[in-house]
């Protein structure tokens, strides 16, 4: 699901009322009002979406955090609903799955002066070779295709960028299907994860990764 974060002041105040005390403290640490508002609205919208699925009030949602920082529902809810959130500027993406880990990422497509250097460090050797072979006009989209797909996968794993990014390959060529090509020594089609891409808005790309099978 996609949501806009650029809402009016009154609606932003209403969003803040849904947050927990800990979330308000986190929001207060943002130096810029714009970033504080984006965090507040995104977290409030997550609470609303979780509340709708659990049939509870948004402000009653209680979250716990894994060692890698990935949030999940408190065990007291007795729910196997998994979720993940990403936002870029004023667009947020939310992903939900029952009994299956899920990760999502969204980014704006833009030219970065150090994109080639970042690709050399963050992409796998196979991804890097593919990226370098592209026409320069394709490179910005290819870069963020790769980045969002890798980010979504490590978020689904619950490890974020602590997970070694060279251990798996994703597709990245513009116009080609989004897919996991390899995870460690396992071919993508047998790795137990499903990757998809989406377009959340103009000049935006997104990716979502979900476990193929429910836990257990």
The backbone outline, from C-alpha atoms, is globular
Please count the beta strands (DSSP E, at least 2 residues each): 11
What characterizes the major β-sheet?
3 strands, antiparallel
Please write the CATH class name of the largest domain: Alpha Beta
Listing every helix as H and every strand as E from the N terminus to the C terminus, the arrangement reads: EHHHEEEEEHHHEEEEE
CATH topology name of the largest domain? Ribosomal Protein L22, Chain A
How many helical stretches? 6
- Helicity range: 25-40%
Describe the structure concisely for a colleague:
The protein is of the alpha+beta class and 216 residues long. The chain has helices spanning 9-16, 21-28, 33-54, 115-122, 125-132, 139-157, and strands at residues 2-4, 63-65, 71-73, 81-88, 91-98, 102-108, 168-170, 180-183, 186-187, 193-198, 204-211.
List keywords for this structure.
216 residues; Ribosomal Protein L22, Chain A; 2 domains; three-stranded antiparallel β-sheet; 25% strand
What layout of secondary structure does this protein have?
Blueprint: E1 2-4, H1 9-16, H2 21-28, H3 33-54, E2 63-65, E3 71-73, E4 81-88, E5 91-98, E6 102-108, H4 115-122, H5 125-132, H6 139-157, E7 168-170, E8 180-183, E9 186-187, E10 193-198, E11 204-211
Antiparallel strand pairs: 1-5, 2-3, 4-5, 6-11, 7-8, 8-9, 10-11
Helix pairs in contact: 2-3
